[in-house]
Amino acid sequence: MGNNTVLACPLKPNITLITWKISPRVGGHCTLGYRADTNQTDRTNCSDSMNWKSRPDLDPALEIQQVGIAQEGNYTCELVTTEGNFHKTYHLTVLVPPRLRLFCDAQGSPVCEAAAGKPAAHVSWALGSNSPLQEEVHDSGTVTVLNRLTACGTNVSNTTCLVFHPTGNWSESIDC
């Protein structure tokens, strides 16, 4: 999320035509094309954030700048050469790190929240309490996970919340 990414397309000899066919999760399809005999490029319905990494005759890679959830989807590079046609397909998935928030609720119980992550984070307590998780799925495809520590009749002090996510792992402690 927010980084640039490059999708490689294998360079072959005697290229006639190169086409990137892009089917994002949000918005319409777009294509980038390069025709070798006229040395011309063409683009149809592509945002400015998607373009050739350099000259397509030297490197047919696609560069996506400032990747966001809207760019998730299928990306196919098609090469037409005198030796045949070649395809390379990517399914782009965007990871969004959750925002960690730890607080004490009105009853004095610790609450750990991993907000707006993609995919959903795994949230637990270091002392091993099995509290029911609450999940809220957002329209953007991100998920907020909330875990409230329920330690009946136990004096909970300096408890630690653990958050596990493909973008990283975090721990934070609180004393309610």
Features:
176 residues, 2 domains, five-stranded antiparallel β-sheet, 15 strands, single chain, Immunoglobulin-like, mainly beta
Describe the structure.
This protein is an all-beta fold. The protein folds into two domains: 5-92, Immunoglobulins (Immunoglobulin-like); 99-174, Sandwich (Immunoglobulin-like), CATH 2.60.40.10. The chain contains no helices and 15 strands. The chain has strands at 5-7, 15-24, 30-35, 40-44, 50-52, 62-64, 73-81, 84-92, 99-104, 110-117, 122-125, 133-137, 143-148, 159-165, 168-174. The strands form four sheets. It has a five-stranded antiparallel beta sheet with strand order 4-3-2-7-8, with no helix packed on it.
CATH topology of the largest domain: Immunoglobulin-like
CATH architecture of the largest domain: Sandwich
What is the N-to-C order of secondary-structure elements (H for helix, E for strand)? Answer: EEEEEEEEEEEEEEE
Main-sheet strand order equals 4-3-2-7-8
Beta strands, count: 15
Mean pLDDT figure: 92
Radius of gyration: 23 Å
Instruction: Look at the structure and name the CATH superfamily of the largest domain.
Output: Immunoglobulins
Tally of discrete structural domains: 2
The level of helicity is under 10%
CATH class of the largest domain: Mainly Beta
Q: What quaternary form is this?
A: single chain
User: Any low-confidence stretches, pLDDT <50, length ≥5?
Assistant: none
Question: With helices defined by DSSP (H or I, 4 residues minimum), what is the helix count?
Answer: 0
- Could you say which overall geometry the principal axes of the C-alpha atoms support? rod-shaped
